Amino acid sequence: MKETKIYSVGEMAETCGISPRQLRYYDQIGVIRPSYRNPENGYRYYSEDQIEPLLFLKELKQIGISNDSIQRLFINRDVDQLVQELQINLTMVEQEIQAAFARYHNIVNALVLNTRALAYLHGEEAILSSEYSQFRISIVKVPAVKILYLQFDEDLEYGDRNAYINHVVELTRLAESTKLKLADTKMFIRHANLRLRTGEESFEKKSTYEFAQEIVSENIPENLVNVKTFGGFQALCTVNVGALTSTPQAYEILPKWARDHNLAISDTSVEEYMVDALTSSDEDRFVTRITIPLLDNPGKKS
Question: In whole angstroms, what separates CA 200 from the centre of its chain?
Answer without folding.
Answer: 42
